[in-house]
């Protein structure tokens, strides 16, 4: 069976040993703990709820994650793509997985430091922006020897500074003649605008203001401060240098802190996370004054290990491991061989099987590989994909999910290697290798028939699995009526199409159809309804037909890969007409880029279309799903992993 | 030499590229816009959203494919062949399935994929489910490609 057998765990123990036992269970990571609350009406038995402990660890975890997130920005990024792909988990000794009071104090002070630095940075940024903005405003006025705060009204004079575009200058100069009292204008070095200072009599202040405003001149905002533009600029430069120096200091400090603290913080985060998890589990236990009770699930093969490990604690306790009852729904856990294992990801993306259901993974594995291979149908692409996948799996340490996906691509790639060799596709027709069997581009109808044939085999396996499920649960007749007759009818119709089998096909199809008409209405009470429902059920044939036709995508996507590859080769060869050997360069660029693009697009297309064939055409025949994956209570390790030998100990 | 047959074939080649290409361009841009909204909030989802964005792009490739095969059939790359009016019409008709279904399915697929971006915004691990929804629409573009291809196979020049 491809689903592991899961047993119910019941544990009763003295309350004072609760912390120790939970710690042990978490370290073992074998038991999924299920909430027990509400199972008893006895007022002496209560749910423990989530205690002070959980709040403590939650707060600490929050602080740790903040510090880690802040410092991570300053961490040196790994250089090569490969290193970035690799999960950066650090290896630690199991004994190093702890947290002393001293370390806790350190963490608190680090948190405060990070918090302060985080608040300082935006303030520095604002100062920097304000200073550089002011510098920009002052730039045209550096020639002016008057302190800027002296501009404006004095006893006899009114002084104002403005910038005007050269286009409007002449007209503005003319309007100044309206001033009756003598005036003085000092013009600075013009760039895109002409900066000028107008000194007029205080009596004519309003007129002067109006003239300047009407000219469309820009009046700069010098803000508060003392001294000439030059003096002010120098001061701002100093401020800017100061701010930048402080920013550099902070960056350097943070980089140093990141280098020193990030690995430690990661360890602490994992530890605090695990402790929080443990504290939360407490809420799922029941307790009396002196004992506590725990309920959960364990894989049958781990039961002995759990019993032995708890014995070592030398605590008087009651441990019962038994079969699940009818009312209980155990979680499910996959158990597959090395070939089928990666294809669990296809199931996980859909829905894990319900408890007690057949796990379709061992059937999904060969069909998925085969269909993926046919949709890609290129030996060059397939082998390249398989090589890259196996290289990444070997070289890069990663999560199970990533490994599964890569291994699915590996098997799919191998299948594509075979399919491509049979069809003569090696990077399209790049090398002109002949097909070992036939090329679907030359004989698409043959390939289409093959696709439909494979589709039928796939659909029949789905029906077979449902038949098996029926037989297993004692409903042999349901199996014969619902799957057997359909099988007979469809196979009969297929035989009708083959020369030489016409007679046999006709008999089989008729038998199947009669069987269906007689049995498909058996849930109805009235004899006419029985017959009516039986006849209506034959319409499901159109559904089967539609499903079979859906497998024509095997041909279509395979063709798309092959023809696009040929087009790329053709375009690349066209480049050879270019002179001076330039043609070869262009050809190589087109070949490499084109085939990489084609491989990426079509591998992705093959993956999703193959998934669809599994989910809709295959699973639709038999699979229910809706199971919950077994998730044991264990130490959380987002950033760390224990040395292998320590884990076994 | 340019005959009416050649012109009809060229119209067919143009239609399959233009219509399917326009459909894909509209589709990809729709998903890209929806995706940009999510990426502003969460730049790490870029890779996953890119995968969804590419999905309605395949119709353009199918259109290109048929267009290229038509051009190859009339010998654009190796010296133009003599094409009768009937042959020209046949080639034009062969381009229509992928052209029309490509145009429309790319846009509708993009709507599904853009909704899929919404799935990713809230459930980052459900990429495959979002993809499967979008691929349901693509089925018909694949079938249209197949029919266009089979029609082309049947036309000898």
Short description:
With 649 residues, chain A is an alpha+beta fold.
Please give the largest β-sheet of chain B.
Answer: none
The coarse silhouette of chain A is extended
Distance between the termini of chain A: 29 Å
Could you describe the largest sheet of chain A, including whether it forms a barrel? Answer: 6 strands, antiparallel
Topology:
The complex is a heterodimer of chains A (649) and B (157).
Chain A: E1 6-14, H1 18-28, E2 31-34, E3 46-47, H2 52-72, H3 81-85, E4 90-92, H4 101-138, E5 152-153, E6 157-164, H5 166-175, E7 184-187, E8 194-201, H6 205-214, H7 229-281, E9 286-287, E10 291-299, H8 303-312, E11 318-322, H9 344-350, H10 361-376, H11 379-395, H12 400-423, H13 444-472, H14 476-497, H15 502-519, H16 527-537, H17 540-550, H18 552-574, H19 582-622, E12 640-642, H20 644-648
Parallel strand pairs in A: 4-12
Antiparallel strand pairs in A: 1-10, 1-11, 2-10, 3-9, 5-6, 6-8, 7-8, 9-10
Chain B: H1 4-41, H2 46-54, H3 58-73, H4 85-122, H5 127-154
Helix pairs in contact in B: 1-2, 1-3, 1-4, 2-4, 2-5, 3-4, 3-5, 4-5
What would you say this structure looks like, in words?
The complex is a heterodimer of chains A (649) and B (157). With 649 residues, chain A is of the alpha+beta class. Chain A contains 20 helices and twelve strands. In chain A, strands 1, 2, 3, 9, 10 and 11 form a six-stranded antiparallel sheet that branches. In chain A, strands 5-6-8-7 form a four-stranded antiparallel sheet. In chain A, strand 9 and strand 10 form a beta hairpin. In chain A, helix 2 (52-72) runs antiparallel to helix 7 (229-281) and helix 13 (444-472) runs parallel beside helix 19. The radius of gyration of chain A is 39 Å and the shape is extended. By secondary structure, chain B is mainly α. Helices cover 82% and strands 0% of the residues of chain B. Chain B contains five helices and no strands. Chain B has helices at residues 4-41, 46-54, 58-73, 85-122, 127-154. In chain B, helix 1 (4-41) packs antiparallel against helix 2 (46-54). The longest helix of chain B has 38 residues, at 4-41. The mean pLDDT of chain B is 89.
